[in-house]
Amino acid sequence: YAPWCPACQQIELTWESFAKESEHLNITVGKVDVSQEPGLSGRFFVTTLPTIYHANDGVFRRYRGSRTLEDLQDYVLERKWEAVEPVAGWKSPSSIMMHGMAGLFHLSGWIRQIHSYLTVTLGLHVWISYAVFISATLLIGLFLGL
């Protein structure tokens, strides 16, 4: 979820109720702010918000059902998750591919922080920041080419 997302705000009360019922369902319920955890959103390949996953014994399934409390509970109680195709092996959050995707998301956050530092903190013009990144990209490419 993300705090600025209208759909996330709409499901928030339902999700909190579901979390309170989690002990009776013998499950653990959590939520992750993708704006604070970009690596995790990359690892789970989150493209829409909110995104709900069911995880059991290292097998991940994306929940695409109705977002009412009753339907969320039924998904667990009636074991409806068993009928859902697991996330493909290469797209699984525990795969090497998704570890790499998480790394790219972390890298993009790091680049954004550097850009902010250059433009906001140091007061450099945006184009100077772009020139720094272009130069760094070219130098890294040249170095790797050697």
Automatic annotation (TrEMBL):
It is a single-pass membrane protein. One of its GO terms (molecular function) is disulfide oxidoreductase activity. PANTHER family: DUMPY: SHORTER THAN WILD-TYPE, THIOREDOXIN-RELATED TRANSMEMBRANE PROTEIN 4. InterPro entries: Thioredoxin-like_sf, Thioredoxin_domain, TMX_domain-containing. Keywords: Disulfide bond, Electron transport, Endoplasmic reticulum, Membrane, Redox-active center, Signal, Transmembrane, Transmembrane helix, Transport. It is found in: Endoplasmic reticulum membrane. SUPFAM superfamilies: Thioredoxin-like. The keyword DNA repair does not apply. It comes from Hemiprocne comata. Residues 1-76 form the Thioredoxin domain. One of its GO terms (cellular component) is endoplasmic reticulum membrane. It comes from the Eukaryota. Gene3D superfamilies: Glutaredoxin. The chain crosses the membrane at residues 117-144. This is TMX4 protein.
